[in-house]
Design brief:
481 residues, binds iron/sulfur cluster, 14 helices, pyruvate-formate lyase- activating enzyme, Rossmann fold, alpha/beta, binds FE3-S4 cluster
Length: 481
Amino acid sequence: MNKDLKIIATPDMRSARDRRKKPIELVYPEIEVSHALREFARGKTFYLRTYGCQANVRDSENLAGLLEYAGFTYTNILEKADVIFLNTCAIRENAEDKVFGEIGSLKALKVENPNLIIGLGGCMPQQEHVVTSVKTKYPQVDIVFGTHNIHKILDLMTTVIEEKTRVIDVESIQGSVIETPLVRRLDDKKAYVNIIYGCDKFCTYCIVPYTRGRERSRTKADIIAECQILIDAGYQEITLLGQNVNAYGKDRPAEGDFADLLREVAKLGIPRLRFVTSHPWDFTSQMIDVIASYPNIMKAIHLPVQSGSDEILRRMGRRYSREHYLKLVAEMRAKIPDIAITTDIIVGFPGETKEQFEETLTLVDAVHYDGAFTFIYSPRMGTPAAKMIDDVTAEEKHERYERLIQHTEASTTASSLKMVGGTYAVLVDGVSKRNKNRLSGYTENGKLVHFVGEPALVGQIVQVKIIDSKVYSLQGEYVRA
Ligand code: SAH
Ligand code: SF4
Ligand code: F3S
């Protein structure tokens, strides 16, 4: 194992919080592969495991593109890999615990193969405490990098190979917009396209603004160019990505706003256009109008509410009220009658009273969500909520969580049940592992459907009649065109 440690940069929460508006750099990096790395990569494989949200999935596609450019080939067999990367998530404690467990188990592989290179990237290492732990307790990790320097990964690998050292390079900066052309897409029909990086919302419980930097938009020209390449390659679905897509263009006013961008991408003619995630605060009527006007914009909006109590929303720093949220939902439903609305909810925020929790339940019942992700609050070191007094016991939080799930599941089930008997367009994703004639895919409103059909239908949009519904999936019958 490499004993020496080269520290290029380490993260700190204070710099990560900095939002003094410096101009945003637009970077088109030139990627070079050193002779040493090219030699090392010859005949070697890499394994890449991704945790967390779609932003990380898309980052992993860049990472894989870079590794293939250097000469590595992808393997899905961890034990055989010569290079292992973990692209990590810091959103809740259990996400981090899983990764530390994984790093621990990689030690044995490193003993077997001392030339193995292990890299740890993504949101976890953007926190001081993670880098400190890795430095001292996990010598098997050779490269620690962050969310801002994925494009420099090949240089960091060269350092490890040439200088026989471990290297840490994680900066807490506002970040730039980095246009890396090298990408290895994981799917050949559905693709993610970043439109805005980072987050300026600073919800008091959330680590993302610290791990991902300031809100910064790509240029419309670069987004359109990426979408056009996908359309030309026969992609059926594009999902525009951002922690808050509705903030698109605020930092780059000449580009227009999210409504303008959505309209322009829709006009390119991709069969299905989606976007995540929407923040209720930035959602304008113009955006709703654009979604209503283009049939290829999917009628599905992920609109995290987090809580139904105004006092909790205020302490979360969400900057909207229950009333504002319900009005927004009402406007969406009025203008787009078949809209599917999904959400994220946190229970057990510090000091959440029984009454405040009940307000979340009544909100869930009032909105009739089509789906919901529910979480128990997890304190994140360095965030304001982690310092708030919390007198709610873990047991009480779990009980509330169970009750919340009963309500969200009732609402999801009701929304699925309404679809039974109808025929819907389904983009076929793949075949079941156990039976290749069992296919699955998603409807326009984001419901998972299983049905029997030939494997040749994978990648196509087909008509499926819904015959039965479970909480998290529908059963359908292929309707031959
Ligand atoms: N940018 C998106 C969400 C990113 S994180 C948004 O603002 O909607 C995804 C979800 O994780 C959040 O919506 C929230 O519900 C949950 N989450 C974030 N921080 C959390 C924490 N500290 N504990 C529990 N859940 C959290
Ligand atoms: Fe986190 Fe809030 Fe930003 Fe979403 S909007 S990423 S919850 S700080
Ligand atoms: Fe996790 Fe980072 Fe995404 S913390 S949810 S991977 S932005």
